[in-house]
Amino acid sequence: MQFQRGSGILLHITSLPSRFGIGDFGPTAYRFVDRLVEGGQKYWQILPLNQTGYGDSPYLCLSAFAGNVYLISPEKLAEVGFPAADNIEPPGSDDPNTVDFGAAVEYKIALLNSAFDTFRNTKDQGLMDDFHRFCDEKAAWLDDYALFRALRAANGHTSWNQWPEAIRSRESSAIEQARGEHDDAIFSEKFRQYIFSKQWFELKAYANERGIKIIGDIPIYVAYDSADVWCNQSKFKLKEDGLPRVVAGVPPDYFSKIGQLWGNPTYDWDQMRIDGFGWWIDRIRFNLGLYDILRLDHFIGFAHAWEVPAGNKTAVEGEWVNIPGTELFSLLRDALGDLSLIAEDLGEVTIGVDQLRDTFDISGMRVLQFAFGGGYWNPHLPYRHVRNSVVYTATHDNETTVGWYKKGITMKKAEHIKHCLRFLKSNGEEINWDMIETAYRSVANIAMVPMQDVLALDNSARMNTPGTGKGNWSWRVTEEQIASADLNRLRELAEFYAR
After folding, report:
1. Is residue 373 classed exposed, middle or buried when 0-12, 13-18 and 19+ CB atoms within 10 A define those classes?
2. Given a cut of 60, is residue 84 above it in pLDDT?
3. Pairing of strands 246-250, 304-309
4. Cα 16 vs. chain centroid, distance in angstroms?
5. Mean per-residue pLDDT for 126-151?
6. First to last CA, the chain
7. Distance (Å, rounded) from C-alpha 392 to C-alpha 456?
8. 10 Å Cβ neighbour count for 289?
9. Which residue among 56, 397, 399, 437 is the active-site one?
10. Where does 310-439 show beta strands of DSSP type E?
């Protein structure tokens, strides 16, 4: 699907400023939308909004459908009649540029428990009716997810494969008994998802009304310890004891010499085919309703997947397995019509990956940090871009542009930096703006720039380093930094290059 020519900023919700330890759907998110409008932008790209678990990664979540309730805004809660939340002391923060996940999560849980106590005693029949309407509309995933969270808490937050056998294997009598025993916890979890949905769609509506479209993101895989795997065990390559036979990753590449061992269970596509890939159709439909445009993480995994035997310490030893991507996307298009999708077609891109993307008119990605120091054939070079694509100065998995440049010039053979400076006709003093203008100049329909590059920040502001398990996802921008961003310059570039 061809998108309107325009530009935007990549900034995840958790990276927004707030006084509650983590970015959320509150006033600063609305002010950020206003700043996007001031800067002549048309798009705001975020990372997955799903409920995070261990490690706080938005790409390793407890559900492919449930929202991250830690993004709920205390201010917005107070606006709709939950004043008890004001009695809870928000977490202090020694570093406004860093999310303190531990303190933020503890605070948000206390906040939501307080709000739930108020809600369960409400006399507002309209509010209760709206809640029940939400529960009915989302029952296909919400009922099982709420039970999953209740059981997880009741079992000491252990993985579902360690629960009692009858529950682990989802025996119908055991499931029904569990629903009765954990009714209160289930009610609470559904309330949290209701509030998440209300606040998110209010923010999205505010952005859309001002001409800003939201680009969302879904990981191709789900976490092993998730409601999705527990509820759909036959659709994943698991052993009889419920543990994975093989896990997902990628072989050695640009990011890592030993590959990336993600550890997610891989799909049993033959089993998924039995019901016409119903889980995938439901998932894409749900997310296209959540966002205006949907980015598919690790798109090459829809053509072929790197499967590593469970228990391996690295992703070096594995094998490529063919995936029925054409069959899947044909059914997706039949069920959903035109697909507003962006493919993260980075990594081991083959002819088959290109064909799958182009057959279904899906926009690909180009990353300027990958463009220099190689051959003329490099698809990331600006003169190799195509209209049906999204060009980035960098993604959330990259170094910041300033960090990339500074690191590059310290290398003994920084040919990619020399090539970059010559190509951009740059002296490097404003490498971030030179890269931004190059992205805006591209024929690609959409140009996206991480907020870190707008602010000329170094690698201390990096969001994620693939292949590492610590120190990721915690960067935050401050109110002062957002206010200082040169959005006039962005607007001038957007106007000059018809974005």
Report:
1. middle
2. no
3. antiparallel
4. 15
5. 97
6. 18
7. 15
8. 9
9. 397
10. 319-322, 341-343, 364-367, 389-392
Partner residues linked to 389 by β-bridges: 364
Residue 478 in contact with residue 63, Cβ under 8 Å? Answer: no
| CA–CA separation, 120 and 187 (whole Å) | 9
pLDDT at 86 over 70: no
Average pLDDT on 327-348 reads 95
Name the active-site residue from 297, 307, 437, 453: 297
At the fourth CATH level, the homologous superfamily of domain 6-496 is Glycosidases (3.20.20.80)
Burial annotation 161-184 (CB, 10 A radius, 16+ → b, else e): bebeeebbeeeeebeeebeeebee
pLDDT tier, 119 (very low <50, low <70, confident <90, very high otherwise): very high
Cα dihedral value 219, 222, 228, 234, nearest 10: 120
Q: Using only C-alpha atoms, what is the Rg of the chain?
A: 23
- In this structure, the dihedral spanned by the alpha carbons of residues 378, 381, 386 and 389, taken in order and rounded to 10 degrees, is 100
b/e burial code for range 253-267 (CB count within 10 A of at least 16 → b)? eebbeebbbbbbbbb
Banded model confidence at residue 253, pLDDT cuts 50, 70, 90: confident
∠ at Cα 194 (140, 178), nearest 5°? 55
- 297 is known as an active-site residue: yes
Looking at the predicted structure, is the pLDDT value of residue 128 above 90?
A: yes
237: amino acid identity, one letter: K
Q: Is 253 a catalytic residue?
A: no
pTM for the model: 0.96
pLDDT at 468 over 90: no
Write the pLDDT tens digit of every residue in 343-370: 999 987 899 999 999 999 999 999 999 9
Given a cut of 60, whether residue 373 has pLDDT beyond it is yes
SS3 367: strand
Q: Report the distance separating Cα 142 and Cα 174, nearest Å.
A: 18
268 Rama sector, left if φ>0, alpha if ψ -120 to 50, beta otherwise: beta
- Burial string for 379-401 (b: 16+ CB within 10 Å, else e) reads bbbbeebeebbbbbbbbbbbbbb
Query: Is 228 an annotated catalytic residue?
Result: no
Closest CA to 436 of 41, 46, 14, 47: 41
Cα–Cα separations (whole angstroms), residue 8 to 446, 453, 487: 8, 12, 11
Cβ proximity of 343 and 299 under 8 Å: yes
Residues 6+ apart with CB under 8 A from 252: 258, 259, 315, 316
User: Which of these is catalytic: 100, 344, 399, 434?
Assistant: 344
- With tokens 């205390």, the residue in question is 74
Paired residues of 172 in beta bridges: none
